[in-house]
Design goal:
Blueprint (H helix, E strand, L loop, with lengths): L28 H14 L3 H5 L7 H30 L1
Length: 88
């Protein structure tokens, strides 16, 4: 039996994954409408929203939301950074 140490491998992935690595998730218009309506009602409770859409997982719904709204989050971050710099 071989007792040499094995090289270290990562058997798990980091929870943070670049959105560049994600495949775009296609949603029907009805699914998108329901996601938007549910988000206004319950916020980012992705599991609750996914429970209303047959065949969709919470991770898919969250990933769809992030990818669809990434430019909005980036714009807010940039605006916050600019306003913080003007205060200095």
């Amino acid at each position: 039996m071989d007792r040499r140490p094995r090289p270290k491998t990562t058997s798990h992935y980091s929870q943070e994954v670049s959105s560049i690595e994600w495949d775009f998730i296609n949603m029907s218009q009805q699914e998108e409408d329901l996601i938007y309506r549910m988000y206004r009602l319950v916020g980012d409770r992705w599991g609750l929203i996914a429970g209303r859409i047959p065949g969709r997982k919470a991770e898919e719904i969250e990933r769809f939301w992030i990818m669809r709204h990434a430019h909005l989050f980036a714009a807010r971050r940039d605006q916050h950074t600019l306003s913080a710099q003007t205060l200095d």
